[in-house]
Amino acid sequence: MHEHSKDLRPSLCPEMHILSLIDTNSQYKGHVFLYDAESRGRLLALLQELVADPDYEFSQTKADLVSNKVQKIAKDEQQQGAERNRQELE
User: Fold this and answer.
1) Cβ-defined contacts of 37-40 (< 8 Å, 24+)
2) Among 2-6, 12-16, 34-38, 81-85, which stretch is predicted with the lowest mean pLDDT?
3) More confident residue, 16 or 10
4) Which of 34, 37, 33, 60 is CA-nearest to residue 49?
5) Contact 57/45 with Cβ under 8 angstroms?
6) pLDDT at residue 90, as a whole number
7) Are 32 and 46 a contacting pair, CB within 8 Å?
8) 1 contacts: CB under 8 Å, gap ≥ 6
9) So what's the pLDDT on residue 5?
10) Residue 40 Cα to chain centre, angstroms
11) Nearest by Cα to 40 from 15, 9, 62
């Protein structure tokens, strides 16, 4: 058995991300978003649904803030994965 084979198996527990957005000026004092890599696209779509819902106080500015953070996390994960792969090849 290859000594690194255990590292190649998919994780049983995907990495989850929790983002919170606190807004003391809103009826809804905060928003919490829980997502993993597979549900990232759904979260980004949900943000736009929240903006479009007139009964929900969620502005485009808030959606952009959360979206930018989600995309930064995704980019950081890709860079970390590439770095891990590079180190494993050395």
Assistant:
1) 37/74, 37/77, 38/14, 40/70, 40/74
2) 2-6
3) 16
4) 60
5) no
6) 67
7) no
8) none
9) 40
10) 5
11) 15
